[in-house]
Amino acid sequence: MGILWKKSNKLVDEMMRVNLIFLANSLIQMATSKWELRKGDKNTNWTTPEKKVNGLRGVPALWYQLINKQVKPCLKCKTKGTVTSTKHMIDVNKI
Fold it and tell me: Which of these, 24, 73, 74, lies nearest to 49 by C-alpha position?
């Protein structure tokens, strides 16, 4: 997606319009049931989770850059825990 790994899962879920934990659990459950049926040598039709429309299609790269600035360390200050948020850049760096 172009988003740094430091961002919260909540933001990613809202942007993707899917709950990643729910999706992962449903895929695990489906894989487990498939495996149990294979062990029993039964044929069946598999259903996959419903795919949703990508709400981020066509979002410009600038959007991802703005989101990433909220967690990127400030290169000018070089102090631990300082990020390049808009407030920090205006107040401290006068940019």
Answer: 24
